[in-house]
Amino acid sequence: MILRIHRFLTTPCNKRFTPQVIFWFSLSLTFTVVYSLLALREAFSGEYIVQDDARQHIFWMMRFLDPELFPKDLIADYFQTVAPAGYTTVYRVIAALGVNPLLFNKLLPVVLNLVSASYCFWVCLELLPVPAAAFSATLLLSQALGMTDTVVSGTPKAFVYPLLLGFMYYLVRGSLWFCLGAIALQGLFYPQLVFISSGTLVLRLFEWRNGKLGLSQERRWLCLAGLIVAFLVMLPYALKTNEFGPVISVAEARQLPEFFPGGRSRFFYDDDPAKFWLKGRSGIRLTSILTPATNAAGFLLLLLPLFPNKFPLVKQISKEITLLLQMALASLGMFVAAHILLFKLHLPSRYTQHSLRVIMVLSAGIVFIILIDSVFKWASQCSQSGFSRTFSIPKVIAIATTTIIAAALVLYPSFVDDFPITAYKVGDTPSLYNFFQQQPKDSLIASLSPEMNNIPTFAQRSVLVASEYAIPYHVGYYQKFRQRTLDLIDAQYSANLSVVKEFIKKYDIDFWVLNPIELKADAIKDRKWLKQYQPAANNAIQQLEQGIKPALEEVMASCSVFETKGLVVLEAKCIVRE
């Protein structure tokens, strides 16, 4: 029995569609489907549910169904402008077929998870032709994706894993045209991947021959073709004139509280270098890379090949395993480049957290099977020496080790709170959404209420500002957004009604949503997002603590047109007439 288990788990298989391969591949996809369905169940557990990041990247796509929505909307125009062309095209085509983008956003992750899992399985099988290892790696990937909202977001970053793993698969298979196609798609969906893939191609040119480092003649044409495609697909980004540019500089970012502790887009950790380099937007995201924690076993892949007699399965590892090291070096190289050119290449973490996670799940999946094989080989040697005729300890150890590893892999999500992590947000004021849906499509709503984060998605109406859209990386956009927020804070807490009226006329406001609780000083103190906007926030706190009442409080009763769950909707025209 122990011999059959050993063979079932660790026997190499060089043919692609044997019963053994099909079994492990099917089992891999089964777990992926189960995890995806758990997320899908949450997505459809209510009427007003949306993924957190989708509130930024999807709401404006309702324009595909109704071009009259969000007219002259700064926020919608910005997010539409910065959206990658391929990502936008997919949603546009789906919308042309009559499918609501918000519905498609919930279904898309299932497809992306399955494609990612499929590529992961076949990539691992190319690196070590043991189907159980491919299953192990794929299971780890599916769990990793269940512990982050990357894929479930259905945003551009959701395409990272299928495109990166697809590139890896076609690269190790030597499929020129598919490899080039993967690079082109990376540029259309998630441009940062193009730099990693290009760096990987360049590193693959170098190889050891007879103890010397030389250039590979076999790979030069693939590298050249890949770099040409990368150049062509990235050229439009270089030539494109962004009406919301330029990208913020380091000096400018250091002047904004948004990039420091408590900020909406915290980046700098001047008080903690370890966090700066390992965590957050500035770091390699080590915690994410080692999630699930079983990924840490991947580091052993650097050591096990040094002991081929103790770990004989390492002899079956393909020479293409160097791809993992090459991609890791390319990722770290781009991480350094992103810091040097901050923020021109966007966030440094974008170049490590996804690619290194893929590397670790593949490495860990291989390591687990190598360890299992080693234990079984040891038990077999004990049996041949006659030790097991008297004692069955080696067999018990082999089976126990396999059981522990299998349990750790399969049951890991059971010990993770809220698995899968989806970051779905639930809208809890449906009557408010219905009210605004009945208003003209060009309506503009002013409010500092957190509920404004949901209005563009659930009511398809424009908001002047909301914390979800306070993205500070493009100066042309954020200067306007920040000024709007400062003006709104000044107006909402001003004791002079004429200031409120001037604000309404300046931005052509149609409605103002107030929560009486927000007219208290503590409400501002508790909102980290509002405290970024100085001196307006501190002025408002000081005024309220002195007992000076906002002018809006005086017109709340006379200008109210709707009220629900503590939120009062005021008609702007009424305020102006007061």
Concise synopsis of the structure shown:
This protein has helices at residues 2-10, 19-43, 54-57, 74-82, 85-96, 101-127, 131-146, 160-173, 176-189, 192-203, 220-239, 250-253, 273-278, 286-289, 322-340, 355-384, 387-390, 393-411, 430-437, 455-458, 475-493, 497-507, 521-525, 528-531, 536-545, 551-559, 572-577; strands at residues 49-51, 206-209, 212-215, 424-426, 444-446, 462-463, 511-514, 560-564, 567-571. It has 578 residues and is mainly α. The strands form 3 sheets. The protein has a 5-stranded mixed beta sheet. It has a two-stranded antiparallel ribbon with strand order 1-4. A two-stranded antiparallel ribbon has the order 2-3.
Essential attributes:
two-stranded antiparallel sheet; elongated; 578 residues; mainly alpha; 5-stranded mixed sheet
Q: Averaging pLDDT over every residue, what do you get?
A: 93
User: What is Rg?
Assistant: 28 Å
How much strand?
A: 5-15%
Backbone shape: elongated
- Largest sheet, spatial ordering of strands: 6-5-7-9-8
Explain how this protein is built.
The structure is a single chain. This protein has 578 residues and is mainly alpha-helical. The protein contains 27 helices and 9 strands. The strands form 3 sheets. Strands 6-5-7-9-8 form a 5-stranded mixed sheet. It is elongated and about 95 Å long. The N and C termini lie far apart (88 Å). The relative contact order is 0.11. The mean pLDDT is 93.
